[in-house]
Design brief:
- The chain is α+β, with helices and mostly antiparallel strands.
- It has one domain: Molybdopterin biosynthesis MoaE subunit (Aldehyde Oxidoreductase, domain 3).
- The chain contains five helices and nine strands; from the N terminus they run ααβαβββαβββαββ.
- Strands 3, 4, 6, 8 and 9 form a five-stranded antiparallel β-sheet that branches. A four-stranded mixed β-sheet has the order 1-5-7-2, sandwiched between helices.
- A hairpin with a 2-residue loop joins strand 3 and strand 4.
- Helix 4 runs antiparallel to helix 5.
- The termini are far apart.
C-alpha cells in the first residue's frame, strides 16, 4: 500500500506562507458554501497596497421575489474548476484592462437564504473611476461567462434563471 505524504512534505515551499500566497489566487477568487464577511474581505484587500485610493464593492444578496413571484428556495450550482478558472480570468483581465491595483471575487453555492450574501466583488485602484468601471464590468462578465447557475423555487415551481436583469 502506497503511503500518502502530506501536502507540505511534497511541496515544502508551500510552508513559506509568503511564497504560497504570492503564487495563488485562491484567497482572492473563491467559490464556497460558507457565508463571508464583507468587512473582513475589504480589510484583506486593503492590505494589497498602500497606494489604494478607491475601493468599490458589489454585493449581491438573495431577494424575496423574482418576476413577481415569491421565492421559497434559492440554490446555486456550478461547474467545479471551470467556474473558478473563469473567475480568475475575470480578475486578471479586470486588473489589466482597468489599471486596478487588485480585485477579489467571492461567490457562494448551495442553498442561500433570502437576504443572505451571494456574490462579492471588490475592486481596488488608485482612483475611484477605474474601480467603479471595473466592478460593473466584472459582475456583468461573471453573469455572462461563468458556469454558475441559479435555481429559484417559487409558488409556480422550480425555475433555472437564464437571463439577468
Amino acid at each position: 500500500m502506497a503511503m500518502k505524504l502530506p501536502y507540505s512534505r511534497l511541496f515544502p515551499e508551500a510552508l513559506d506562507k509568503e511564497i504560497f500566497m504570492r503564487s495563488a489566487t485562491e484567497s482572492k477568487v473563491r467559490i464556497q458554501k460558507e457565508d463571508f464577511s464583507v468587512t473582513d474581505e475589504i480589510e484583506f484587500m486593503k492590505k494589497s497596497s498602500r497606494n489604494i485610493g478607491g475601493i468599490t464593492v458589489f454585493l449581491g444578496t438573495g431577494r424575496e421575489t423574482s418576476k413577481g413571484e415569491k421565492i421559497a428556495d434559492l440554490n446555486f450550482e456550478h461547474y467545479p474548476q471551470m467556474a473558478e478558472k473563469k473567475l480568475a480570468e475575470i480578475r486578471e483581465k479586470g486588473i489589466a484592462d482597468f489599471g486596478l491595483i487588485d480585485m477579489s471575487i467571492v461567490h457562494r453555492i448551495g442553498h442561500i437564504d433570502i437576504g443572505d450574501n451571494i456574490v462579492l466583488i471588490i475592486t481596488c485602484g488608485e482612483h475611484r473611476q477605474e474601480t467603479f468601471k471595473a466592478c460593473e464590468w466584472a459582475i456583468s462578465e461573471l453573469k455572462r461567462t461563468t458556469p454558475i447557475w441559479k435555481r429559484e423555487t417559487t409558488t409556480k415551481g422550480e425555475v433555472w434563471v437564464q437571463a439577468t436583469p
